[in-house]
Structures are given as C-alpha cells and as structure tokens.
Amino acid sequence: MKSKLDSESASSAAAATATSAQAPTLRQFALDFFTFFGSSVTQEQDRPGVVFVDLGEPLADHFGANALHLCFEHADAARGYELMARGSRLYDLMMSYLDQRSAATLLKLPRRDASNEQLMKAVRPRNASILNLHMRETISRLYAFNWRLTYRSDEKYEEIYTVLVDDDGVRVPIQGDAGTRPDTPSLDELFADSEASLDEERTGVPGADAALPPMAQLVRMAQAARKYAVYHADTQSAVHEAEILPRLYRTLNRITSYYGLQIEEVYDSHDRDGEKRLSLQQDMERKIAEEVDNHRLRVAVDLFSYAVFQMPVAVAEMTLSDGVREANIQVTHNRYSGVIERPRCHACGQETANVSLDKHGHITCDECIQQCATCLEVICRACGVQPCPVCGKQSCDECGEMCWACGERACPEHIDTCPVCGDRVCHACMTECSHCGVRQCRSHLVSDAVLNSEGVYELVCEACAVRCPGCHQYSAHVEVCNASGQRFCQNCLVTCSDCGGRVGPGFYQTSAVDGSVHCVHCMRTCPDCGRLTPDMLHCEKCGAEYCPSCALVCDICGNHCCEGAYERFSACGHLVCAEHESHCAAGGELVCPICSPSCGVCELPHCDVHSARCRHCEQVYCANCVGASGRCPTCERLVSGGGEVVEITSEPCIADIEVAAMARHYRWRRAGNARYLIYEGNNRITGGVIVVVDTAQGADNVVAVRRTGLLEYVRGRLVK
C-alpha cells in the first residue's frame, strides 16, 4: 500500500507526461488510490488529461458521487472536471479517507530459500577451526513507518514519506534511495510478497507471532524513524523557503508602494499634527507583520501508518579457536531475500567471508591482517603493528616498546634506558657522546664549540663538556693555559711568539706593531706606568723607553717623545715637540704653531699681545706690520691706488654667493701677501667693498666680505 501512496515516487514521475511539475506524482497517487480501493479507472481517449473513475462501495458514500472525472490541469478544471491538486477538495477527501483507515499491519514474508548450504559455506576460517556449531530458525522484523509531512505557509504542501528501519533502529535502504544496489527490494515487492502473519502453530516457524511487538519497542522504532523523517523535512524546507521568499517580496513591495503613495498624497495643511501619516505608517507596519507571519513556513511531521514485516532468518552460531584463544561469531541467512550477514572485521567493520583470529581474539579480514616480526602472531589493523624507527621491523604492542622521546614503537633490540633521565628511548633518539662514547638522549648532549678534524661540530655529554672561561661555550677539546693553569677551549688558546707557550684570554696581548702574540711572561714592564706591554717605544730625542699608553705624540710631526721633550699648551691643549716649538718674533713668548700661524706679511710667529688687526681688511697681523694708519701694508697699497686691476668674475672667489651678487657693481683691484688675497671694489656712488681670501685654506676660501660705505671710502682717500 505504501508504494501506491508514495507521492514522490521516482518511477511515477518519469512515466507521467503532464507538463506541471506536481502533476506526475499527484496523478500516479490518485490512480493508485482509486485502483487499490477497487474503483475502475479509465483514461478518456479524446481528452488525455482527464481520467474517468467509477467509484464503488464505500468510496461512493465518502465522495458523495458514483463517478468522478479527474483532471490535473487548471484549464481542464474550468470545463467542469474535478481538479486533483494539493489543497483541493478532492485531495482533502482522499487524505481524510486514508486517515480513517490508517493503522498498523503485521505481515509475514515468505521463505524463498530453505537450503542451509549457503549458510554453511558463508564463513571460511583461515587460521582457526570451528567449534560448537549451533543452528536455529528465528524471525527478524522490518518496520515501515509512513509519515505525513505538511508544509504550511501562504500555500500548503503535503508529502508522504516512508522510513524503513530494522530491529536495531537503523534505517534500511529501499529501492530508489541514493547509493542502493540494483537488487535492493522495493516496498512494492515487500507488500506484494507478504501475507498476514500467523502464529507459530500455523506457520511452523519458531518465534512467529501474529501479535504486534511490544508497544515500548514500537515507540522506540518510531522515534528512530522520526529522526530520518525530520531530516528529510529539513532538507525539503530549504526548497520550499526558496519558493516562498519571491512571493513574500512581491507582496511586501505591493504593500509598501500602496501605503507610500497614500502617505505622499496627505497634504501638510490637512495633517498639521501628522496623525494621518502616523496612522498610515502603523497600518503599513501591521500589514507587513501579517504577511511575514503568513509566509512563515511551518512544518508538521505526523505518523500516518506503519507496517511490521516478519522475515524468516536462519542463524548459525559457532566458536572459532586456534588452540590458544577463542571467539564467538554468528552468521544469519535471510530466508526471504537470501542475504547472508557474516561477521564483521574488528578493524574495518566490513563483512568478511575469510575469517582470521588475531592475537587478541579479534575477527579480522584478509585486508586487515598484519603480522608481528618478533612473536610472528597475527594482529588486526586496529591493534596494529608499527615499524621500528631504527630498523623498520614491525612489532606489536606486547613485543615493541614505546619511545618516550618520539612516541614511536621500537623493537627490543633498539631501545635502551637513558643513563641521565632514566627514560626508555629508542636508538634513533639517542646519540653517543663523541668523547666518552656513552649513548644517551640527544637532548642531554651539547654541541662542541670546536670543530673536529673533519670540520664538524660534535655532540658531547655534560660529563665530558667543559665550559670555557673565555668564550663561555662547552667543549671537550680543551688545553691548560701555561700562564694561569686554567682549561680553555682550543678556539680561545693562542701561541706566544716568544716562548711558544699556549695561553688563554686575559693572559696575553697582541702587538699593535706587527700583530704578534706575547704572553704575560714574555711581556716587558713600562718604567713609567708599570704596566706589562708587548711593545716598547723610544723617545726620538733622548732615547728613553716607555709603553704606547705613556707615549706622547707631537700634533705636527707625529713622532713619539718623552715627557721632557714636548710642550703642551694649556689654552688649546696641543702637544708640540721641541723641534716644532715657536716663539713670538716681537717679545719671544712661546706660542702654539697650530693655533697661532705666522704673520701674513713678515711670515714670523707672534703672540696675542704683539698682534694687531688691520682696520681695512680686519685680519690679524703682528704689531710690527700694522702701521700708524691702522692698516697692513697690503691694504695700504690698495688704499693708495696700487694693486692689480682684475676682472673678479674670472677669480676663484666668484664661487662665493655674496661675492657673485655684488661683482658687476664695482671696479676691482687686487693685492696680496704671504697668506691673504685682498680684493677692493670701488663705486663712487655706493662706496666700496673688501673681499678677503685665505690662500692657506684654498684660493676660493672667502673669509671676509665687508662693505666700507661712501663716507669711509672718501675718508680713506683723504687720509691717504
């Protein structure tokens, strides 16, 4: 009956020829309904879309007519035929009739295969023998629950969905489900082959009972089946919601457009307080809420009817034994479908005909068999063997041992106890000390700071490694310092150039002259400061010895000199040897030759006391070279009209920005002395300008640019 009521049958949908998407399923549903209840169904030749149904008892009383003309298109319904569609009057009458007749039925499936030959050959032990074989006949049940799924929104959809479960509440696939085999029976076949169940006395089948299973078991099976029905309803709800949303949007758009126009047509003069607009806005919001609630999808899942199928089953119970361990297995043979259920592999969970018994008594298939290389026992893949990280030999959990470092299972030959931490560690995670050869965890070893003869940093244990006091690194390649007796690594030790001894840091110095190394025993003591030094310097004047720290260097010639052979000027801090001492030509005072250069005119040194500044070029000369007029001889020559007439744009001083700006406004003359070049520019309107260039620092080094002014220019000429 279920196949006749299944409104979503794939075969019915493929056979229908109507254009509507719902017509094929509804058409087949209607034809199956009336045919099942004894009505005569005839296809009208002149109208392919119309079906004539001659109703019999009791359908005539329920439908209120003796005959019906069914159509499945709205165009045919307009001609006076009964429309068959979801929600139509005829559809509701059919569903109400089914509600009155829906109940439970207990059916018995026939025994098609009574032979025990296949049952006896179902299992082939590989490494065990069969003991205590017992065979018995029993029944198993299948539960077919028909669910009515109702989807209500602005429209109504209904669907009858069937879920078939076994005694364990696990869904049994039926023909048409995704992933089922071609030989999977359909519900049509189950109902067609079944008959009313009788008790054991009439059937001869042990366990056969005409009564339904206990209510508690039926409730448990129904709850298990309802989960699958709810899941199916959830998936279909997504499809229906996708169809509802466009209709909801169209309705909401119509409401908002209508009320929007109504609000715009309200004039301000007629609605000064805004009550009309507020009322229209509230009406629109209420209408929108009503439509949203009306289009909200509501799903109801109701149990429509159910059927219990009793299937004859032959059960063979046996014990497998390999002489050491045993395992009980069971093989069932469905007498109706011929399906044989064999033991399942402990590792992969698949049924297997070739059965092996592993070390722990687990049933194992050929694909999951493994063997321990130590005890040579069969192990299933779930218990598993693991390769040794050292030799790769497979071992089980009893023969192998877990390494605490890497977590791998190592064979007994390649795992030891670490002498430092006491953990059991495989040889792949252990390394021998390069110095003492003791194998231990690699984490306890340190890298030697000294390269070996092969250019590799070796690993050494904490007992052999010595921390060098020089570089603070660990190493087993150490030597004793000849100067201190301490142990240093070979990277820190050096060889003395004098005695050839090996010394460590802090006990030798490197010569700044030739880079040679000298230990503390071979270095000399400075007579001035008492420090040890590898280098001794000699005074260029008196030949006295001293260390580089005590040596004094002339700031002019760079020669070393002792304390009595130099002069330090307190004002500038310069140090000058006796050879480069300078004295004032006027008073004989000692002057610094660096800070007090010689006079630009006489080229003799002079002190600050015997210096004078030329009031024309404003440069400092000795007092003897600046005359009573306050001008140097070079400026006197320019003021008196002497000097060389030059084109200043061709002179190096034109590179100065200030000189270049005033060059074309003056007539220029030039005069010079041993140090300065002085340019004088004359202009009878604006006066004059003085440009001084220090030739000692470069021909373009302008040190002074001074405007003299017209008054000063005339006064200079008058004084002259």
Tell me about this structure:
- The chain has 720 residues and is α+β, with helices and mostly antiparallel strands.
- Among the domains are: 1-101, no CATH class; 104-263 and 275-342, no CATH class; 386-444, Herpes Virus-1 (2-Layer Sandwich); 623-719, no CATH class.
- It has 14 helices and 51 strands.
- The strands form 20 sheets. Strands 5, 7, 8, 9, 10, 11 and 12 form a 7-stranded mixed β-sheet that branches.
- α10 (215-264) packs antiparallel against α11 (275-294).
- The radius of gyration is 59 Å and the shape is elongated.
- The termini are far apart.
- Mean pLDDT is 82; it is low at 1-24 and 200-205.
Features:
5-stranded antiparallel beta sheet; disordered N terminus; 14 helices; 22% helix; 720 residues; 7-stranded mixed beta sheet; Herpes Virus-1; elongated; alpha+beta; single chain
Structural class per helix/strand content?
Answer: alpha+beta
Largest sheet: 7 strands, mixed
> What is the total tally of β strands?
51
Instruction: Give the overall average pLDDT.
Output: 82
- Helical proportion, percent range: 10-25%
* Euclidean distance between termini CA atoms: 145 Å
Summarize the structure.
It is built from 14 helices and 51 strands.
Strand and helix map with partners:
Layout: H1 2-5, H2 10-15, H3 23-36, E1 40-43, E2 50-54, H4 59-63, E3 67-71, H5 74-77, E4 82-83, H6 89-101, E5 104-108, H7 117-120, E6 124-125, E7 129-152, E8 156-165, H8 187-193, E9 195-196, H9 200-203, H10 215-264, H11 275-294, E10 298-321, E11 326-334, E12 340-341, E13 354-357, E14 363-364, E15 369-371, E16 378-380, E17 386-387, E18 394-395, E19 401-402, E20 409-410, E21 415-417, E22 424-426, E23 430-432, E24 439-441, E25 446-451, E26 457-460, E27 466-467, E28 474-475, E29 478-480, E30 487-489, E31 494-495, E32 502-503, E33 508-510, E34 517-519, E35 524-525, E36 532-533, E37 537-538, E38 545-546, E39 552-553, E40 560-561, E41 566-568, E42 575-577, E43 582-583, E44 590-591, E45 611-613, E46 620-622, H12 633-639, E47 644-646, H13 657-662, E48 667-672, E49 676-683, E50 687-694, E51 702-707, H14 709-719
Parallel strand pairs: 3-4, 5-10, 6-13
Antiparallel strand pairs: 1-2, 2-3, 5-9, 7-8, 7-10, 10-11, 11-12, 13-14, 15-16, 17-18, 19-20, 21-22, 23-24, 25-26, 27-28, 29-30, 31-32, 33-34, 35-36, 37-38, 39-40, 41-42, 43-44, 45-46, 47-48, 48-49, 49-50, 50-51
